[in-house]
Amino acid sequence: MTNSLETVIRENGTNIHLVPDKKFKTVSITAKFKSPLSKDTITKRALLPYVLQQGTVTYPDRKAIQTALDRLYGAVLSVDGSKKGNNHIMTIRLETANQKFISDEASIMDESIDLLQEIIFHPISDNDAFMPSIVTREKDTLRQKMKSMKDNKASYANMRLIDEMCQNESYRIHIHGYEDDLNTLTPESLYAYYQSVLKHDQLDIYVSGDFDSADMKEKLIHKIARDQVPDDVEPIPDMEKQVHQTNEIIETEDVQQAKLHLGFRTHITYADNEYAALHVFNGLFGGFPSSKLFRNVREKHSLAYYAASRLESHKGLLFVLSGIAPDDYEQAKNIIEQQLDAIKQGDFTVDDMDDTKRLIINQLLETMDDSKGLIELLYQQVIADSDKSPYELIEMIKNVGKEEIISIAHQCQLDTVYLLSSKGGGSNE
Amino acid sequence: MNKIAYNEIEEILYKEKLANGLTVYLLPKREMAKTYGIFSTNYGSIDQTFIPIDQTETITVPEGVAHFLEHKMFEQEDRDVFADFGKQGASANAYTSFTKTAYLFAATDQIKQNTTTLLDFVQTPYFSKDSVEKEKGIIAQEIEMYNDQPEWQVFMESLRNLFHYHPVKVDIAGTVDSIRTITKDDLYTCYDTFYHPSNMTLFMTGNFEVDHMMDWIRTNQSAKHFADIPDIKRNYPTEPDSVAQKESTLVMPVSVPKCTVGIKELSDELYGDAFLKKDLLQSMVLEFFFSKGGSFYQTLYEEQLIDDSFHFETDLEKNFGYSLIGGNTVDPDRFAEKTIQLLRSVQKKSFTDEEVERMKKKQIGQLLRAMNSLEFMANKYIHYDTVGVDLFRVIPFIQSLTADDFNSFIQDWIDDDRMTVCKMVNE
């Protein structure tokens, strides 16, 4: 095990991260464009991933792109957007089989880099506008996506919880954008915005797999780096919101199972020293099947199939998620709150704590066995503007003490309880 | 212990069949931090009708027993197995499919101890009346969760349309009503019949020393007593080639309607190369037409009939097979009509060598990519092994496919009697 997972080269306004690892049978190149979350740009950023996959100058339609990908031994292109704290990240990823496993194929890597460069820097356009037919069609795709969000009840409930919890914070911005903004968006305005993404977004490019570092560095600097150095993007400071009273929201839909989601404020993010203790706290509380939530809500009281907690590491939030019978709302909520109280009172053993640490470390090491997982872990540092590597985080987790966990539990404030219940079904209200 | 080296993909696999009948595969990968172990029985939701071990009469157990049994295995008389794995830094899980029940762990530490825990808990059943009753609340919530998932409802309804009698049409978890009738005796009957080591496979892959690991497993198994290797008598109904129902419509409160076109694949107990050939051709042909950029995908896309939820899948097992094509659509009727029309046109297609080359490259690349994952290798290896296929020989097999293979496959792939449509609308 080595301690330096990546070599970072800063060149022409781009950070190139080389992550050589012999265990992978593929090489993946991942470009991440980062910009502050903003209502003004989110709809454009939600639409761009769809448009960029529909054609380039050399490969003018989706079919031509796909044929090129197929020829590269089924290389896989993915473009998507995600929310990390108060940032929006657009990720463009190309994963290609390593040519060493394929006889008589020595140019796959070069061709892959060319293709990715083409997709990022030369989307098909006409007179400083994306092709109107593509934009019109992809607006429909996105519109349908916004509409169908509601059909996945767990993610809908999570979205509604954040709507309510973060009303005045940029984190509430919907990842798929807004229909009103979509309607006014044009091929010209989208193209102009993309040019500004290329110039001003922070760009980090990760390469992982088994490759020659010097050669790869040379190729990427030559092919992908931008000419312009972007302006330093100041992170938007977040108002530290202290919770004075827990908000309770109950809504109904035509569902069989109620979704009970709780939003807590931890006031701790990745860069903070307490982050490792927060991780261990989350593990004890609801991160695993051996955690308090699973053992009590599910195993002891048979109230749910799933009951778990998840961290939002860059915004300082913790979510509890469970699916329950509508009539069990009060009981389930009370049991969940009791689990937090138990940790506050130190109701866990040093063994419980050590087991949890091992589980978390196991999870982090496992994530690093997956090329996509590894890059997401490394990118945490970019988002948090922190030099805490995954291995350092692991060391810090090992050193967390019981008192620190108890103090984290006291720091966690329940901001909002959101229940998506059945129509006419009892919420005991 | 047999050692098989696959030089092209740089893998070495070790195999041993133990005295009690258990098949063990070890695939060491020392460059990984993680080890993944899966202990799988050749028993799934479709094995509902069988002759219990030591009996003579065929019985049919309630829907959802295999899955219920999987849940209950984690509870031992005095403790919960999740906690044991937790103490050993491992994450554990299990799943039940139509044809398999599998228990698994992933860990970066204490691998031997975790392997023992895996073997021991799956080989020590403990079911009590109370604990069986308590589990019903949990599984009922699992079923209700699926009841709220429109995609799952369309999937199961498509299978009900495709199959007249085959138990693949039955939901793996059963129904809230069927699980109420499950007793601890049902669980013991199924356990005793299907969890004999001779019906099971242990596959370990990751960071361990292979000789020590095999010794460790041998010692663990030889210390336990099992009945003589039984001959399991399963009973599957005779299933016609045609679909049970050509079309049906589900009503659920969805924001965007859905539609799926299903193809009932001919499956006549294929084995070895014959199975693999059909399995590959079925999925490569679907990929060719329906993946992004494929000609059928493009047609549906240009006619505004699909969005990015569009997907297709195909499954081939020893005694059933199906392919499903569908997703959200603003117009389920037109989606169905157009998709069926496109599928009917396949027969007239003649694949060129260039197209076949491209399909093969894509399939090989996808397989190599999937092989980055220990989970994929272990699960897929076991899946193929039960039908006589060696996962690590699939790449050369793909390379050997010819345009003639594809052209003869599509001659009788599509048949109106073997297609069904499932729509989902708001009201």
UniProtKB/TrEMBL annotation, chain A:
Residues 185-358 form the Peptidase M16 C-terminal domain. InterPro entries: Metalloenz_LuxS/M16, MPP/UQCRC_Complex, Peptidase_M16_C. It holds the Pfam family Peptidase_M16_C. It comes from the Bacteria. PANTHER family: INACTIVE METALLOPROTEASE YMFF-RELATED, METALLOPROTEASE. NCBIfam families: YfmF_fam. This is Pitrilysin family protein.
UniProtKB/TrEMBL annotation, chain B:
SUPFAM superfamilies: LuxS/MPP-like metallohydrolase. Residues 181-362 form the Peptidase M16 C-terminal domain. Transmembrane segments: none annotated. Residues 63-175 form the Peptidase M16 N-terminal domain. This is Pitrilysin family protein.
